[in-house]
């Protein structure tokens, strides 16, 4: 096994002192730009990799960022993690990924574990109950560990939050269904304790009210977040004697896809009998038939921006608390066009 390249090797090749090379690699203001560029170029040519453990002993940092997500079943969170990793790896940071499996208790354990591993910061999207671990979030911040929340964010914690305008995009989705001629639009809402559930539901309600369409008592149904949840809700509706929808705006794509599955089992056609719009633009949206209309969130950008704000917090040693609202878009497909069918 070849001996790893060290700062001494770079210094010897360039005829510089090890302290000069070290400061150049750390982007010190004391080193000239030309020298920095030469050192960085030589380091790349020699395939030099910094020893983060040794660096950590000097800087009192672990150069590790913890990530906590509620699930890794769908492609939504892995895509965001890829965006986070892209930025952090370039800056010499490692990531430690944990998933909570939609359990607040597991999330708590994950946060404590990351603190014990002395991570330099934590990037997190909460479980379905975004408030239950507020005491842990506050404790981590009090202990000097910066937090950045994305997608699912707690309303009672003052920190940086990366989100989209869920209400606006829900309004856009429902308005699209109305423009297509649908009138009995049901909303399969998300877990009641999530802020994004409330925002998306408010967008649905406002769109219906602006179009002077009634919202029956059975039109808003709180679901879970998985395919089986949407399937169970739609099966119950179709098997019962209550009001039936002619369109469904679902909390997310998996719930919409589960409901579509149940509908097709009953021999009904999409979108002629019931149209569907999801949310979050999962990879499954263009795998199911017909293709699912959905709100596309900028997943990679969410990850990259979350990572950059985390780095800013670490570098400045300040909270820098901001709410960043990113753009999203409605991708219209066959599941919500009346002139197409499965």
From TrEMBL:
PANTHER family: HTH-TYPE TRANSCRIPTIONAL REGULATOR GALS, LACI-RELATED TRANSCRIPTIONAL REPRESSOR. Keywords: DNA-binding, Transcription, Transcription regulation. This is LacI family transcriptional regulator. One of its GO terms (molecular function) is DNA-binding transcription activator activity. Residues 5-59 form the HTH lacI-type domain. Pfam families: LacI (PF00356), Peripla_BP_1 (PF00532). The keyword Transcription applies. The keyword Transcription applies.
């Amino acid at each position: 096994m070849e001996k790893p390249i060290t700062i001494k090797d770079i210094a010897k090749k360039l005829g510089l002192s090890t302290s000069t090379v070290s400061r150049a690699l750390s982007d010190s203001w004391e080193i000239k730009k030309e020298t920095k560029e030469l050192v960085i170029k030589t380091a790349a040519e020699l395939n030099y990799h910094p020893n983060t453990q040794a660096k950590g002993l000097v800087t009192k940092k672990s150069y590790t960022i913890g990530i906590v997500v509620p699930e890794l079943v769908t492609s939504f969170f892995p895509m965001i993690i890829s965006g986070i990793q892209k930025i952090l790896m370039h800056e010499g940071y490692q990531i430690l990924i944990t998933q909570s499996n939609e359990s607040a208790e597991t999330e708590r354990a994950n946060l404590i574990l990351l603190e014990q591993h002395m991570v330099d910061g934590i990037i997190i999207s909460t479980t379905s109950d975004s408030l239950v671990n507020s005491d842990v979030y506050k404790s981590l911040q009090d202990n000097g560990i910066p937090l950045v929340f994305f997608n699912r964010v707690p309303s009672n914690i003052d920190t940086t939050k990366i989100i989209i305008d869920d209400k606006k995009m829900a309004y856009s989705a429902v308005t699209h269904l109305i423009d297509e001629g649908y009138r009995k639009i049901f909303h399969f809402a998300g877990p009641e304790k999530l802020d994004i559930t409330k925002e998306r539901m408010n967008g649905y309600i406002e769109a219906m009210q602006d179009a002077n369409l009634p919202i029956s008592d059975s039109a808003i149904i709180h679901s879970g977040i998985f395919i089986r949840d949407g399937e169970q809700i739609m099966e119950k509706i179709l098997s019962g004697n209550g009001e039936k929808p002619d369109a469904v705006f679902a909390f997310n794509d998996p719930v919409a896809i589960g409901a579509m599955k149940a509908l097709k089992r009953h021999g009904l056609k999409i979108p002629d009998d019931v149209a569907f719009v999801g949310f979050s633009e999962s990879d499954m949206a263009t795998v199911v038939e017909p293709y699912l209309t959905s709100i596309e969130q900028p997943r990679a950008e969410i990850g990259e921006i979350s990572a950059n704000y985390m780095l800013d917090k670490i570098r400045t040693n300040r909270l820098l608390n901001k709410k960043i609202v990113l753009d999203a878009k409605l991708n219209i497909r066959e599941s919500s066009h009346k002139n197409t069918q499965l």
